From TrEMBL:
It comes from the Bacteria. It comes from Paenibacillus baekrokdamisoli. GO terms for biological process: CTP biosynthetic process; GTP biosynthetic process; UTP biosynthetic process. This is Nucleoside diphosphate kinase. The lineage of its organism: Bacteria, Bacillati, Bacillota, Bacilli, Bacillales. The active site is at residue 115.
Amino acid sequence: MERTFVMIKPDGVKRQLIGPIITRFEQKGLLLTAIQLMTIEQSLAEQHYGELQSKPFFSELVHYLTSGPVCAMVWEGQHAVANARALIGKTNPVEAAPGTIRGDYALDIAGNIVHGSDSTENAQREINLFFHADRVD
Ligand code: ATP
């Protein structure tokens, strides 16, 4: 069964949105198979967003991700990657449709509440980064 990595970012945790966000994924029909509240180190944030290293906002992004605890999760189900991305909504909350997580809870691209893997390959890479393999199987 397909798996995806979802992370509630520090602003989502601070705003006490873990419950409502998990509810949306559960109501959709996805299955939560791993969850961990953790404060991540700069090196993990840099590895996670390695593809964005050349972007002007990269250091702001790393600072944001390490500014407080995140909630790292693995969700499983049919088309888990695409279904999770649909629940999350477009990257920029201004463009995210009402009914999506970013559309309902976020105002600004630099504080967009939640991350979801964009491919099955990246999902596996991110699950390996945040969870030891023996925790999710
Ligand atoms: P994520 O990987 O967090 O799920 P995404 O795949 O929808 O987001 P990416 O283009 O990979 O979008 O951007 C990763 C993250 O970088 C965004 O979620 C956002 O937090 C941040 N980001 C993207 N563009 C900007 C920007 N112009 N200014 C500040 N932060 C940005």
